[in-house]
Structure formats: structure tokens, C-alpha cells
Amino acid sequence: MKKWKTAISFNTKEETYIRGYPLTQMIGTLTFTESIFLVLKGELPSENEKKMFDAMLTAVIEHGVAPPSVTGMRNILSGGNDLHVGVAGGILAFGKYHGGALEDAMRFFQESVKDEEDVYGLAERLAKKAIEEKWRISGYGHKYYKDYDPRSRKLITLAKEYGFYGKHTEFAVAFEDAIHKLKGKRLVMNVDGAIGAIASDMGFDYRLGKGFFIIGRVPGLVAHAFEELTTEKPFRRLDEETEVEYTGVPPRDLPKR
Ligand SMILES: CC(C)(COP(=O)(O)OP(=O)(O)OC[C@H]1O[C@@H](n2cnc3c(N)ncnc32)[C@H](O)[C@@H]1OP(=O)(O)O)[C@@H](O)C(=O)NCCC(=O)NCCS
To answer: What single-letter DSSP state applies at residue 46?
Structure first.
């Protein structure tokens, strides 16, 4: 028994084999998305899996300067760090409200749906429970999108077209509708929710969820890192006068010793 084991790839002096396929055959033949699918799932995607997976990664490639990962990363870089330090810092900002929600949403869909036949009844039951118990439901809600998340809409349309509108996605949509009906207020299915549901219907394990977000968003983070390093002045700092409010105790003297 050797010390380390992996089923992903191995190298010889002449070739690298990824999931059994020679890398030199993959180069120039497979797209990057197909290669990502192969590395993660172990097999090549079908034509529709390839299109769906590509759309899912594209949907999260970039979403402005505002999210915690980008502002956090730009602050790290402005302190005088290299690109890779900033990008790593941006990834570290992916938590249960940003990026990490994808994994939690996937888990919720997979553990809820299981062998359930009536996903609509299930959605109503769980929506009622979620409201009563005041759950913060991963994959739903957004700071910016309050009526619908356009990325989710597009992905759901494509899931129907490519044959991945299965029980998990049906449940995810029904759950959004059930919350709306019960609360009279919309809690939009965000892009993490849509990807989580579709990835579940594609047979992915929920523990890969955060990985999908990281893989999709890193190009955006790298672009922001490069922009910060090449166009912004170092040392971003809040303006104490206009941007910082002190809420602590007023100035006081130390007790006499
Ligand atoms: C992303 C998120 C932080 C945005 O929050 P927001 O729109 O600023 O919402 P707030 O935290 O101000 O809450 C507004 C109301 O919506 C409710 N709400 C928002 N997101 C909710 C969720 N996911 N589940 C349940 N209720 C939610 C809040 O409880 C609050 O209700 P109230 O007005 O009755 O008190 C929030 O929706 C969330 O935590 N979602 C789950 C994590 C997630 O999917 N993140 C990925 C985002 S792409």
C-alpha cells in the first residue's frame, strides 16, 4: 500500500492521465467546462450536461464590486499583498450567506426531496415549517434582487430545455412559490439556489456545492484583483470623519493606581 491514494489522475514522464484520459488528447479537444466536469465527476459530460454545466459556471462568474469577497479582497490587496493573497482572501469570504449558500441549498434540496413523490405537497409543508420556525433558508433571498434573480430565471429555463428540470428543481421552484403564497412576500430563489437545485438533478453530491461557486467566481476575483493592483492607490482606508461612527463609551480616564 502506497502512502497517498488518488483516483483523479496520474503522471508518467510522457503523459498525464486524468480520469483515465490522456491530457494531450484533452488539450485542443475538450472545452475547459468539459474538463472541469470530467475532473469533478469522473466521466465526460453528455452534450446537454456540458451546456448546462457551462451555463451554471457562467452564471456566477462575476457580480460587481459590492459582494463581501470582492471588497474584502480589494482591501487585502490595498494593504500591499500579491494577487494570489487577495484572491485567496476573496475565497475565504465565501460563507453561508455568500457562495457557501450553494452547498447548504443543495443539501436542503437533496435531504428534503429524497424519494418524495409529491414535491409540491412537500414544498408547502416545508415552507410552512420554515416560516413558523423562522429558518434562514439558503439559496433564497438577495440583497439586490427583490422580485426575481434574472440569473436563476435563465438557468431554470435552460434546465427545462436541457432536461435537468427534475424533482429537486421542481421542488426548489415550488418552495419559492409556497413561501410567496404563505407570506404574501417574495423570497427570490437566488443563483445559489438555482444552481444547487439543478446540480442536484444532475446527480452532483451537495458537498461539491461550494466548489462550484469557487470555480465559477475565481475569474471574476482575478479580474478585480488585477484592476485593484493596476489602477487603485494602495492603502484603502475609511474616512473617520464621514464614514465611521463611534458607538462605544465616551473618552474616560483610567482608574487611579
Ligand atoms: C442574502 C441575504 C443575506 C440577503 O439578505 P436581505 O435581503 O438583506 O435580507 P435581510 O437580512 O435584510 O432580511 C429581510 C427580510 O427577509 C427575510 N429573509 C431574507 N432572506 C431570507 C432567507 N434566506 N430565509 C428566510 N428569510 C429570509 C429576513 O428574515 C427578513 O425578514 P423580516 O423583514 O420579516 O425581518 C439573505 O437573503 C440570506 O441570508 N439568504 C440566505 C443565504 C443565501 O442564499 N445567500 C446567497 C445570496 S446570492
So the answer is: P
In a domain, 254, yes or no: no
Residue 73 falls inside a structural domain: no
Q: Is residue 148 in some structural domain?
A: yes
Mutate to test the pocket of ligand 1, among 60, 63, 69, 97 (most ligand atoms within 8 A of CB): 97
Q: Is 187 in the pocket of ligand 1 (CB under 6 A)?
A: yes
Answer yes or no: is the C-beta of 97 below 6 A from any ligand 1 atom.
yes
pLDDT band at 1 (very low <50, low <70, confident <90, very high): confident
CATH number at residue 112: 1.10.230.10
The structure's pTM equals 0.94
Maximum alpha-carbon separation in the chain: 78
Which range marks the domain in which residue 122 is found?
A: 101-207
137 lines ligand 1 (CB under 6 A): yes
What gap in Å lies between CA 79 and CA 86, rounded to an integer? 10
